[in-house]
Amino acid sequence: MNHDLMRQLAEILPRIQGFIYPNEIEIHWGMLIVVYPYITGVVAGAFILASLVKVFNVKEVQPLYRLSLLTALAYLLVAPMALVSHLGHPERFYEILLTPNTSSAMAMFGFVYAWYLMAVLLLEIWFVHRMDMIALAEQHRGAMRFVYRALSLYSRDTSERAVAFDHSALKVITIVGIPSAFLLHGYVGFIFGSVKANPWWSSVLIPIVFLFSAIVSGIALVILLYMIINPLAGGKINMKCVDKAVDFLFYAVIVDFSLEMVDFIHRVYQSEEEIKILSEMVMNKLFLSLVVIQVLLGMLLPLTLISITKIFRKRFGASEDLRKMVYFLSVLLIQFGIFATRWNVVIGGQMFSKSFRGLTTYKMEFGGLEGLLYALGLLILPLVILTVLLKILPPWKEMKELRGGAAGGGLETAGS
Amino acid sequence: MNGRRTFLKGLFAFLFSGGLIEGMLNILPAGALAREAPDKGKWYGYGVSVDKCIGCGRCMDACKTENDVPREPFFFRTWVERYILRKHGATTVKTIDPAAEAPPEADFDKSILRSFFVPKLCNQCANPPCVQVCPVGATFQTDDGVVLVNVKTCIGCRYCIQACPYGARYLHPVTRTADKCTFCYHRISKGLLPACVEVCPTQARVFGDLNAQASPMSRFQRMNKIHVLKPALNTEPKVYYAGLDGEVR
C-alpha cells in the first residue's frame, strides 16, 4: 500500500469545498502532465519559427534557424519522458505502440510523435547539417571524426548536385513539417478537448488555442535562448533579427489572446450548467495562475511592453539596449505565462467535481516522480541536451551573421 | 526485382484492403463503439429505487470486502450520496460513511424540503467513453455489456478516469491500474447477484438480465418511471434510476 499517497489524500480531505464524487479527490494528471504540453508546445513553436525562414522566406530571422531546429529536437526528446514517468506502469508503455486502440486519441500519440521526430525534425536537421558534418569530420581527429562520419551517415558527396538536392529536400520537408507541427500540438489539445465529461476541457477551440500558445512559447523561447547564448558564444545580438522575430511573436500573442477571450466570452455568455462551479474555481483556486500570471503578466504586460516599443518608435529605435531589455523581459514573462496556461488547463480541469458541486485541491509534492524536483529536472534537461547539440552541430557562424541569407555555416536559405 | 514487386503488391493490397481505413475511421465516431442489446444472450442492467434506499451503507461495505477495494475513503466502486434540499434552493450533498458510529448529523429543521439517498456505481454505459479513450484497449466491453479493466495490460495512464463523467473510476493504489465496479462479474457469471444487491436490506438495488422476460430487472423497468444520469452525454448508461431527483448529477 502506498502510504505517501494515503497521507497526501488524508491531508486534502478537509480542504475539499462542497461535494465531490469520492473518487475525485486524487488529482490524477499532475505536474508531469503540465510539463508535457509545455514541452511539445515549445517543439511546435520553435519549428514554426524555423519554417518562417525556409518556407516564408523571412530572411531576417535566418540567425535563429538552426538554433530553433536544435531547440525543437532537444525538447522533443524530453517530451515522452514526462508521459512515460507519470504512468502507473511505465514498464508497459510499449503496449501503446504494439496494441494501440484505434479509437483512442492518446494511442495515436506514439505515431504522431514518431512521425514528427523521424520524418520531419531529424530529417530536416540532417539535411541542414550534412555539408557541415562532412566538413567537421575533415577537421577533427580521433573519436569525434568517427562521430561526425556516423552522424552524416557516411555521406561524402559535396558536389553541387548534392547540395542542390539538399535544398530541394529541405523545402519539401519543411512544407510537410508545418502541418506536422500543427498536428503534433493540435493533437495534444485534442486529447483534452475531446473529453466530453469535462466541461473545462471539452471545447473545439482547445486544439487551436494550444496551437497558438505553442507558437507563442516556441518563438519566445528561441528568442530568449538566442539573447542569452549568442553573447555567451562571443557574438553580437542581431537586432534586425530579434525585431522581426518579436514582430511575429507579437502577432501570435494577439491571436492567442483573442482566441482565449473568445472561449471565455462564449462560456460566460452561454452560461451552461457548469458555469457556477467553473467561476468559483477561477476565483478561488486559479486566480493567481490564471488571472494574474497567465493573463496579466504573461500576456497583457508583454503585449503592452512590445506595443510601447512600436508606438514610441523614435525613442526605442534609437536605443538598441532599451529594446533588448524590453524584449528580454517580455519573452521571459511570456514563458511563465504559457507555463501557467498549461497548468490552468491540466490542473484546473481536475479541481472541480464532475458533479459541479465542489472543488478539490492540488498539493504538489517536492520529491518523487510527481514532485516539483523531478518536473524541474525535466524542464532543465532539454537545455542540457541543447548544450550538447550546440557543441556537436555549432550554429555560431549562422547566429553571428549580421545579414541573413548570405553564405553562412553551410547552407543559405532555400529561396536564394 | 520480383521480390520488390510482390512486396509492393502486398503493401498496396494491405493499404486498400480496408483494414487500415476501417481502423482510422474508428477514431471518428464514438457511436461506432456503442453496443446495442444483443438479440440472444445476456445483457446486464442495474436498477436503483431511490425511495427505497435508507443509507445504511452495507452495500459500500460489502463491495469493499468482496472486491478487495482499499478501505481508505478515497476509493469506491460504489457509494451512497445523501441529498438534503432546503427552501431557497440550497442543496447539501455528502457521501455517507458506513464506518461512522453515530448516524449523520441531525440538522433537521423546518427549512428542509426533502432529503434522500442516491446509490452510485459504474453505469456500465453501452456507449462508454472510458473504452473509447483507453490507449491500449485494457478497458473493454464484454458481450453481456459489462465494462471491465484488464489489470495485466492497463498502463495506468488514467485517461479513462478523466473520461468518466460519473467519477466511477479510480487508480488502485496497489495494482497501479484503473479500477471500478464490474457488477461483481465473478459472481454474476456464476448466476449470483452482485454483492451490493445481495446485501441491500430494502431491495433498493436490483440486478438482472435486460433481455430476459422474467428477470427482476425487467420487472423494475416495467413498474417504474426511469431516468439515467447525465443522459445528454450520450453514454447510454445501463444503471437505471427510479424516482431520481433532478438535483442529482
Describe the structure in your own words.
With 416 residues, chain A is mainly alpha-helical. Chain A has helices spanning 3-12, 31-54, 65-86, 95-98, 109-139, 142-151, 160-193, 205-232, 239-270, 275-284, 287-311, 313-318, 320-346, 348-351, 372-392, 396-400; strands at 17-18, 358-359. In chain A, strands 1-2 form a two-stranded antiparallel ribbon. In chain A, helix 2 runs antiparallel to helix 3 (65-86) and helix 5 (109-139) runs antiparallel to helix 7. The longest helix of chain A has 34 residues, at 160-193. Mean pLDDT of chain A is 90; it is low at 403-416. In chain B, the strands form 4 sheets. In chain B, strands 9-1-11-10 form a 4-stranded mixed beta sheet, with helices on one face. A 3-stranded antiparallel beta sheet of chain B has the order 3-2-4, with helices on one face. Chain B folds into 2 domains: 1-33; 40-242, Alpha-Beta Plaits (2-Layer Sandwich), CATH 3.30.70. Chain B has 249 residues and is of the alpha+beta class. The mean pLDDT of chain B is 89. Chains A and B meet through helix 1 of A and helix 2, strand 3, helix 4, helix 5 and strand 7 of B.
Task: Offer a quick outline of the entry.
The complex is a heterodimer of chains A (416) and B (249). Chain A is mostly helical and 416 residues long.
